[in-house]
Specification:
InterPro entries: APS, APS_kinase_dom, DUF2061_membrane, P-loop_NTPase. Catalyzes the synthesis of activated sulfate. It comes from Autumnicola patrickiae. This is Adenylyl-sulfate kinase. It holds the Pfam family DUF2061. The chain is an alpha/beta fold. The chain folds into two domains: 133 residues, no CATH class; 178 residues, P-loop containing nucleotide triphosphate hydrolases (Rossmann fold, 3-Layer(aba) Sandwich). 60% of the residues lie in helices and 10% in strands. The strands form two sheets. Strands 4-5-3-6-7 form a five-stranded parallel β-sheet, sandwiched between helices. A two-stranded antiparallel ribbon has the order 1-2. The two termini are 46 Å apart.
Length: 341
């Protein structure tokens, strides 16, 4: 999870102000024919623009538009909003210093094109710069972890399992969006519940609107999303519950982290469905948006899906019915838990 520091906002304000002021000085000099007046206008805007730009950055950090995906639209909208604010400031300053409103209008209008291009490029460069972006797993956080001592309770996982009369398990469904993960997960849970098994379902959209609503869809935060879910599943294991988890989980590295966290009480289900079939179904209309460029880094389109080769079960949804798939999964799950006697 990343945190953006105040130092980063200040550094961005300074670098942009250097670029913007030089542009204003040159434009004012060119329009008025007076280098001294160009210098006056440029220097006068330094203080006002620094302040305005800082607050503009602080405002945009609170706006979620374009954060959910790595979107160029966010950079474009920031460019436009800042240009409106910046141009109005330059026009007023040029008017006041030159005493001529026409000069103010000319300087303001000419700088629109140059400043929008420069500001957009400035945003793109800063997007690639890590300065002022801190990972929460900093030295201070690591030291804090050293002082945490998990509480041991009298009621153990073993005792809870005895009360429920079955062993806990994490049944993890992985597959492309639209592959049928959630459908199969729902049917499996229903079947287990009918047999008296204590279950709970964790689903991608449900988690994203609650526990993990602070995470976006960058590769790093997708991994953090999966890590948190695995930790939640581990808690359910401790409660003696059979967890049904349905998540795309596209990367092998993330699936390895899940296994490390959950331990041996893990059953992996690969819901194998071709990209073409998932696009044909397109239940949520996400593939259409991904193809049109509305969604970036969409798994299967412009982000990879590494097919699991070490999961317990592979379900080919294009060559078997849902009922056949459920029976196959239930058979494996029942071997891993102790049913009621």
């Amino acid at each position: 999870m990343k945190e953006v520091s105040h130092k980063r906002h200040i550094a961005k304000a300074i670098t942009w102000r250097c670029i913007g002021t030089l542009d204003t000085i040159l434009l004012s000099w060119f329009i008025t024919g007076d280098p001294f007046m160009g210098l006056q206008i440029g220097l006068a805007e330094v203080l006002t623009k620094m302040l305005l730009y800082y607050f503009h950055e602080r405002l945009w950090i609170r706006i979620n538009l374009g954060k959910q995906v790595i979107s160029q639209w966010r950079h474009i909208l920031k460019t436009i909003s800042w240009r409106v604010v910046g141009t109005l400031d330059t026009m007023l300053l040029a008017w006041l210093i030159s005493g001529n409103p026409v000069v103010g209008l000319q300087v303001g209008m000419v700088e629109v094109v140059t400043k929008m291009l420069l500001y957009y490029l400035h945003e793109r460069v800063w997007y690639k710069v890590d300065y002022g972006i801190k990972d929460r797993s900093t030295k201070e956080h690591v030291l804090a972890q050293d002082n945490l001592l998990p509480q041991e309770y009298s009621v153990s996982q073993k005792y809870r399992s005895q009360l429920k009369r079955h062993q806990p398990l994490v049944v993890w469904f992985s597959g492309l969006s639209g592959s049928g993960k959630s459908t199969l997960a729902n049917l499996v849970e229903k079947k287990l519940a009918e047999k008296g098994i204590h279950t709970y379902s964790l689903d991608g959209d449900n988690i994203r609107t609650g526990l993990n609503k602070d995470l976006v869809f960058t590769s790093e935060e997708r991994s953090e999303n999966i890590r948190r879910i695995a930790e939640v599943a581990k808690l359910f294991i401790d409660s003696g519950t059979v967890v049904i988890a349905a998540f795309i989980t596209p990367l092998k590295s993330d699936r390895e982290i899940i296994k490390q966290i959950v331990g041996e009480r893990f059953v992996g289900i690969f819901v194998k469905t071709s990209l073409q079939e998932c696009e044909r179904r397109d239940v949520k209309g996400l593939y259409k948006k991904a193809r049109s460029g509305e969604i970036k880094n969409f798994t299967g389109i412009d982000a990879p899906y590494e097919e699991p080769v070490d999961f317990d079960i592979t379900i080919d949804t294009e060559n078997c019915t849902a009922q056949e798939a459920v029976e196959q999964i239930i058979c494996v799950v029942e071997r891993r838990i102790v049913s009621r006697k």
